Amino acid sequence: MFKGGWTGKILRVDLTREKHAVQDLDGEVARSFMGGRGLAVKILWDELKPGTDPLSPENKLILATGPLTGFALPSSGKLVVASKSPLTGGYGDGNIGTRASYQMKKAGYDAIVVEGRAKEPVVLVVEDSEIKLEKADDLWGKDTYTVQDELEEKHGKEAGILMVGPGAEKLIRFGVVISEKGRAGGRPGIGTVMASKNLKAVVIKGTKEIPAYNREELRELAAEGYKEIKASANYDFWVRQGTMATIEWSQENSVLPSYNFREGWFERADEISGTTMEKVYKVAQKGCPFCNMQCGNICEIKEGPYKGWRVEIDYENIAMLGSNLGIGSMDWAMTLNLYADLQGIDTITLGSVLAFTAELVEKRMLPEDKLGLKLRWGDGEAMLQLAELIAERKGFGEKLGEGVKALSKALGGEWFAMHIKGLEISAYDCHAAPGMALAFATSPIGAHHKDAWFIAWELKIGRDVISKEKVDRLLEMQRIRGGLFEAAVACRLPWIELGFSLEWYPKYLKAATGLDFTLKELYEMADRIYDLIRCFWAREHGGWSREMDYPPERWFKEPLTRGPLAGSKLSKEAYDKLLSWYYEARGWDSRGLPRKSTLRERGLGYVAEQLEAQGMKLEE
In terms of domains, do 361 and 461 share one? Predict the structure, then answer.
């Protein structure tokens, strides 16, 4: 079946036995799930024993590319990292723009599946068919910037390098996989899973040509695509500010998270804006491989303990570590961002944990003497001290490293614990955005913007509109963002930010693989992936309830008090209507589980049988 696009091979590594094997990728699996997220969840469903402890040797760490990965196509230099999440207990993944993506394809693999646990810290080195484990005692405990430099010096600057930081090594539940000093993926603790296997890093180098069905046509289509992107009216501004322009946009639209999502408007937003970044802090530009609309803003910290250090920033990080903490200093927001990157912990969850802790202190639900420091909104120095306690798992930082959900269950305040399904919400307040709240709540990994950036569409449709049309638009967005791009694997930003037509992707897939995929077929594939992810969650949690798809009580209970939308809050009745229509449109029952008929229609009849064999009754 494989005429190009896929290599047709999966590398499997057992760290416990220090063995590896190469397996053929099943052609039907490739056609039905494509790659990336689709291939990852298929492997986890088929091979992971239900109820597996995410931090046990039995859990699997999956690195997965797609049929577009590695070709010189717009924004195709990405790979997906996936596993059962130690933070949520469900399916978890993330994507990273990194040289490791195309190096894996050049080495001849569509995916690498790692299981077991090494006896001591190791680096997995993949050079074409040569696979070896190297001791990493000298790297264990070192920060991600240092490890990147040392591994590049040893293996060359073109090597693809994925690693974990000291925070993940200490099994903080929200450790991420880091690459190239600031590129991160796997918010639901995928870096923690990697560290639990004593796997400090993966180094990948390949020399093979990635197979293509029609290489010349692929080159021509790529050149046309790059040209269209560069001709976009918004191109120059995008290159200058990237996602950081969203600070001002979010402020104007009252969705900028402030004070633990209490507000959607921040009084010092100008000081952490894209404009301020561009004028004062930005010193360089960085992008993923094969990207001609680079969004990586490299900035220099001007003041504080990391003065002179450089850090790659974007909207989510600065909003969660700035306005959400009441911090109006770009230097302190960037310092927290840098510290998280060095430690290999998720910036978004860190921002949420720090904010939740600050609110617990404010509400006198957590005595400051337990923290060992005085914590106040806007105090960057105190926030960094608390982040250090978390990363080092010292004192009360031990509890904070479990994430907001676990913390709220232990200390109370569940109604203002800003997570969904255990994953902390990324940087969009939804007091006045019911469609965006629904997008967060139904994201397949928990509340993450990668799958849920519906807010711009919602503003066009109307914030207050409660309709099936809004739900249909949300499903379309999920099929594109969470389906097509996460399985292909390619970046969504050319489409969403610069209006790059989706019609390019069936053309790219045809030239790469020789297979004709219509957009309709790609959307059907996306639905199949979403169904399987939802069933994986249900299997691992012993069932499903409608409440799993609810946003935090804060957005229903406590209205905004600042900004142009002061007084706004979500209506539970309106939200329930949207959720019911969403389930209906997906072919799911009133609990939020796929119906048997839906699963059969999408080629997942075996999934229904396995769930029912587990004692989970599905509706027809």
Answer: no
Q: Which of 202, 163, 198 is nearest to 183 (CA)?
A: 163
Helix 434-442 with 468-478: angle, nearest 10 deg = 40
How is residue 475 written in tokens?
A: 């499903």
On whether both 53 and 105 belong to a single domain, the answer is: yes
Q: Of 190, 205, 220, which one is at a domain's C-terminal end?
A: 205
What percentage of the chain reaches a pLDDT higher than 90? 96
What is the tally of helices (H) and strands (E) in the chain? 28, 17
Kindly give the pairing relationship between strand 91-97 and strand 78-84. Answer: antiparallel
CATH number at residue 294: 1.10.569.10
> Could you tell me the residue range of the domain that residue 458 belongs to?
434-499+518-613
Q: What is the CATH number of the domain that holds 63?
A: 3.60.9.10
Residue 1 has pLDDT above 80, yes or no: no
Please, what is the average pLDDT of the chain?
97
What is the per-residue burial (b if ≥16 Cβ within 10 Å, else e) of 368-405? Answer: eeebebebebbbbebbbbbbebbbbeeebbebbbbbbb
Torsion of CA 406, 412, 418, 424, to 10 degrees: -10
Q: Which residues pair with 199 in a beta bridge?
A: 122
Cβ pair 191, 199 in contact under 8 A:
no
pLDDT at 35 over 80: yes
pLDDT in tens, 208-243: 999 999 999 999 999 999 999 999 999 999 999 999
β-bridge pairing 423-424 and 296-300: unpaired
Look up residue 547 and give its DSSP letter: G
Answer for the pair 294, 595: CB distance below 8 angstroms, yes or no. no
Question: Residue 157: pLDDT above 80?
Answer: yes
d(CA 562, CA 501): 38
For residue range 316-350, what is the model confidence (pLDDT) as tens digits?
A: 999 999 999 999 999 999 999 999 999 999 999 99
What H or E segment, with its residue span, contains residue 229? helix 215-230
The confidence score (pLDDT) of residue 101 equals: 97
- Burial bucket for residue 138 (CB in 10 Å: 0-12, 13-18, 19+): exposed
- Number of domains present in the structure of the chain: 3
Treating both helix axes as pointing N-terminal to C-terminal, what angle do 380-392 and 330-343 enclose, rounded to 10 degrees? Answer: 10
How far is 508 from 173, CA to CA, in rounded Å?
Answer: 38
Distance between CA atoms of 476 and 474, rounded to whole angstroms? 5
Is the dihedral angle over the CA atoms 83, 7, 492, 544 positive or is it negative?
negative
Burial class from Cβ neighbours inside 10 Å (0-12, 13-18, 19+) for residue 593 reads: buried
